[in-house]
Amino acid sequence: MSILVTGGAGFIGSHTCVELLNAGYDPIILDNLCNSKSESVKRIKEITGKDVKFYECDIRDRAGLDKIFAENKIDAVIHFAGLKAVGESCAKPLEYYDNNIGGSVILCEAMAAAGCKKIVFSSSATVYGSENISPLKEDMPEGKTTNPYGTTKLYIERILKDVCASDSEWSVCLLRYFNPIGAHKSGRIGEDPNGIPNNLVPYITQVAIGKLSHLNVNGNDYPTPDGTGVRDYIHVVDLALGHLKAVEKVLGENGCFTYNLGTGNGYSVLEVVKAFEKACDKPIKYVIAPRRPGDIATCYSDPSKAKAELGWEAVRGIDEMCEDSWRWQSQNPNGYGD
Ligand code: NAD
Ligand code: UD1
To answer: For 62-73, how does the pLDDT look when each residue is reduced to its tens digit (9 = 90+)?
Structure first.
C-alpha cells in the first residue's frame, strides 16, 4: 500500500514514516522543507534499511501534486504538512490561513482528481478550546480557538467533514493530538525546532545541554496540584503508531471519524522537569515566570474512543518520553545541523 505523507520530513511525519516502513507500507514523502531538513529523510532510510521516495514539493503546488499522483498509485494520504507555531500565527495570520487551509483545499482537490479519497489529518487538542473540562472527549462541542494556528485546525476539520458529507467515497480520520514529545529509540530522528523553542520539552532539552540558561515556568498559580500547567504528553512513537491504525480505518471504511491521540494522563510542568532531571541525570534550572497569554490550566484526553474503535493505546510513559528526548538531543546537539 502506498501512502502519501505530506510533511513527512518533519517531527511527527518522520517517526510515522519509520513505523509505516516497518509495517510494510510504502510511504512517499512530500515536503517543502520549510520547517525540516532532507537529512531526516536520509535517517528514515538508515533506521529502516528501506528506500523511501521523497518529493520536495509544496501542498499548494497543484501541478506538483498532480505529477506525484500520476507517477504513483497512492492508496491514502496522511496529511501532516502545515505551519504550527502559535505565536508566529498571531503575527502572520494570512501565511497560516494560506499554507494550512489553502494548502489542505488544494491537496483535497488533487486527491479527488486522482480518485484517492482517503485522508488522515493532523488536528490538535487546541480545537477543544478553553471551555471544555478535561478529560476531553471527541463528542464535546468544539471550543473557541485563541490563535490563527488553532483556527486553521478547526476550519480544516470542518472542511474535511463537509467534503465527506458531499461524497460517500471519501474517508476522513481527524486525529486530535495532545502533546507529542520523545524521539525514536535510535536517537537518529527527533524534534528539531528553529530558534528558541516555544514548547516545554524542547526548551528543557536545550537547558539540559547548556544552550539555554534556565526554564521559565509559565505560572505556578493555576488551579492544579502544584500550581503549574498540566498537559497530556504522548510519546511520538505511540502517536506514529496511532496513524497506522487510522490508515487501516480509512482504507477499510468510508465516513468521517474523529479520535483523540493522548495517554489520558496529565503531568504538570514541574513533574516533567523532575522526570527530565532523572533522564539526563542533572538538575534543570528553572525560575517561576508569569503565565503565558492564552494558556489554560489543564488539558488531557479521554483516549478510550481510539482504544475501542482503532484498537490503539499509548503505552510509553513519561520517563521513557524524557529518556528518548534526551538521547536525541544529547546525540544531536544541533539537531539535523545546517
Ligand atoms: P513539523 O513542522 O516538524 O512538520 C511539518 C512539516 O510540514 C515540516 O517538515 C514542514 O517543512 C512541512 N510543511 C509545512 N508547510 C508545507 C507546505 N505548504 N507544503 C509542504 N510541506 C509543508 O511539525 P510536527 O510537529 O511534525 O507537526 C505535524 C503536524 O501535526 C502539523 O500539521 C501540526 O500542526 C500538527 N500538530 C502538531 C503538534 C505538535 O505539538 N508537534 C500538536 C498538534 C498538531
Ligand atoms: C502548545 C500550543 C498548542 C499546541 C500544543 C502542541 C500554545 C499557546 N499552545 O500547547 O496550540 O497544540 O503546544 O504541543 O503555544 N511551559 C512553560 N515554559 C515554557 C514552555 C511551556 O512553563 O518555556 C508550560 C506551558 O505554560 C504549559 C506546558 O508547559 O503549561 C506545556 O506547554 P507547551 O509545550 O507549549 O504545550 P501547550 O501549552 O499544551
So the answer is: 999 999 999 999
